[in-house]
Design brief:
2 domains; 8 helices; binds manganese (II) ion; minor pseudopilin epsh fold; Helix Hairpins; 3 strands; 12% strand; globular; mainly alpha
């Protein structure tokens, strides 16, 4: 069974003004579709065909095509999942408590995560992960993700795409404004669900 582009749980324009509909449509229907198609082509007929995307990402010594497009498939699927038009605010659930215990308070977490996203040079992602019950923040280059590498580790439960294609139409060079707006649409119920699954 080939990988399929996941359907969004909201309309392309539903995240406005935080992320504009045009950006969302191109990002989902062109970029994510492209990673999905290229991943399917790259694994077709290989021993990776039929494996889960998590298993593929964790496989050592991936070809560039599988690494880039497998990462692109996994990363965007999680990204759409952890955003919602009804999102934002400060989480008052288990992951909210864990964030406070790990980073001091929500503002400190927001600062650390935003810094990881803002200082990723060029294209990449910022992450919140769970490993052995502990939360950590990191960032990766290109379409890499924490499943692929040591030292940036664990199970990703929150991610932010900082490729220019994710924000340039609306924010141009103002990546920090895009990062700030992302906090208005984080689906903390979903992040909490992923956190509990990862414990
Ligand atoms: Mn992207």
């Amino acid at each position: 069974m080939a990988f399929e582009l996941p359907k969004l749980q909201f309309a392309y324009n539903a995240l406005e003004p935080n992320i504009d509909g045009n950006t969302m449509e191109i990002h989902h229907s062109k970029h994510h579709q492209g990673y999905t198609n290229n991943l399917n082509n790259a694994i077709s007929g290989s021993e990776l065909e039929g494996k889960s995307i998590e298993e593929i990402c964790k496989t050592p010594n991936l070809s560039a095509a599988v690494r880039n497009n497998g990462g692109g498939f996994f990363n965007h699927r999680l990204f759409w999942d952890i955003m919602s038009p009804e999102g934002g605010g400060v989480p008052a659930n288990k992951v909210g408590t864990a964030i406070n215990n790990t980073f001091g308070d929500f503002e400190s977490f927001k600062n650390d995560f935003s810094k990881a996203a803002a200082t990723r040079f060029g294209s990449g992602w910022a992450w919140l992960c769970v490993s052995n019950g502990k939360l950590s923040i990191c960032s990766t280059a290109n379409q890499d993700n924490p499943l692929m590498q040591e030292g940036c580790g664990g199970t990703p439960i929150l991610c932010l795409d900082v490729w220019e294609h994710a924000y340039y139409l609306n924010y141009q060079n103002r990546r920090p404004d895009y990062i700030n707006a992302f906090f208005n649409i984080i689906n903390w119920d979903k992040v909490n669900e992923l956190y509990l699954e990862a414990l």
